[in-house]
Amino acid sequence: MIGQKTQYSFCPSPARKRRACGAYPTDPGASVAAVAEETGDVAVAPPRRPGRGKPYFIKLMGFVAEERKHYTVYLHARQAFTWTQMCDIRDVKVVILGQDACGPNQVRGLCFSVQRPVQPLPSLENIYKELSTDMDGFVHAGHGDVSGWAKQGVLLLNTVLTVRAHQANSHQERG
Predict the structure, then answer these.
(1) Residue 145 catalytic?
(2) Contact, 98 vs 126, CB < 8 A?
(3) Catalytic one among 27, 41, 91, 100?
């Protein structure tokens, strides 16, 4: 699918982007679909794709919702589809895949990216190191927020969007 152009866009229309977002629920165990439905916020809704209403997707969302009832699950429901809001899929130039979501203060919906002022993850430090040896003039950003890359067409996607706290690969076959 990478490199193919489709009629579907992962980004909301400019009118929807301008719309003020409602308050998020306080329940960190809320499912992505519940948060999106409650707030009407397209930023937390799964991408509008043909598969969204299919049984496999509904089953997957049910699995994640059930996991959230019994365990701490990263990413938070409102962050799981952050990557869909950074760049229109038709503008993607590079795809970088990560493994799965990380621990607290290390998740934001983009692989290898953390909120400022959290220090870069070791994997991102390795990427910075390689960039500095391969590209003349590359300067280490000094932080781990690579959302700017995402906005320029670098799709930073974890192969698994959710994970149980302290259990790497726990959603490998599902989430």
Answers:
(1) no
(2) no
(3) 100
